[in-house]
Amino acid sequence: MHLGIDASRTTAARRTGTESYALNLIRAMLAQAARHRVTLYFRDAPPPSLFPEAALRVIPFPRVWTHGRLSWEMMAHPPEVLFVPAHVRPLVCPAPAVVTVHDLGYRRFPGAHPLAQRLYLDWSTRFSARRAAHLIADSQATRRDLVQLYAVPDDKITVVYPGRDESLGRVDPTAVRAKYNLPERYLLHVGTLQPRKNLLRLIEAANHQSPVSSLVLAGRPGWLAQPILDAARAAGVRVLDGVPDEDLAGLYSGAAAFVFPSLYEGFGFPVLEAMACGTPVICANTSSLPEVAGEAALTVDPLDAGALAAAIARVLADSALRDSLIAKGYEQIKRFSWERAAREALAILERVARR
Fold first, then answer.
1. Confidence (pTM)
2. Mean pLDDT (whole number) for 230-242
3. CATH for 174-335 (1.10.260.40, 3.10.129.10, 3.30.930.10, 3.40.50.2000)
4. Residues 18, 86: contact at Cβ < 8 Å?
């Protein structure tokens, strides 16, 4: 088949989970798609190292690239099937499209998103859900939300779990501790500082610990971050803005526990990253996180700061529990690989192309 892929999100200067998903999945798909002709579409020219030897179609356009320029490309030179790894099907697309929907957090927690962003996400996801030939969901939680909130038929959605960064593993944290002047014992959260991450409750829960364990928040400020930054400053919480990728393994490996009480996640990559680095995980028992963590994390109600504080105290005090969570974490991460995700996604695209 001639497979077209919207690769525009992979050239972002700062990659969040969605951009990393697109980059890693496309790379894994290219490694398995030798029998197909694959065209990658970009708004901005990628560096040569991003997708070496792939067929690239760079089609610059200043604004409304997806619905304007990519739509025009689909009319002029349609592939047999188009894969969109990040939510938005082009407005005009004669070819059948398969779209990944990562999460519907903007519907579950509307106050955690700017109004304009929320309205666009609602329209674009509803449009993709209605007009795409098939949808891929990152988790059963996202699949349920699509069925409940947008009345998408069950048989139009397939769950394909993303992979994980297999370059991450446990390392000696001494150098990273020294670089960021971190204590021997600290709690860690990795992710954008925004209301959906439930960081005000995390700060409250961490302050209940005795003896006190320092809390470190690693992530860039996002929407409505100022109350989080103010609370962190008042509580003496360290905020590390923009930790480079090469420091993540050391940061995870040095933590006494990784705490991720997010109100809503479509998947939750940091949970797997922490497990890969041999760090015990505490996370919310809602949305996709129970699927990602399995039995390898201590899960709690993210709305109960007291329960979160008790879970942190338990993990810090109980060495047998810590060892058990670490061992289970190493087993849990084996369920997630980009090779498997690419194989399952390609099977869906081939099926759609044959219709």
1. 0.93
2. 93
3. 3.40.50.2000
4. yes
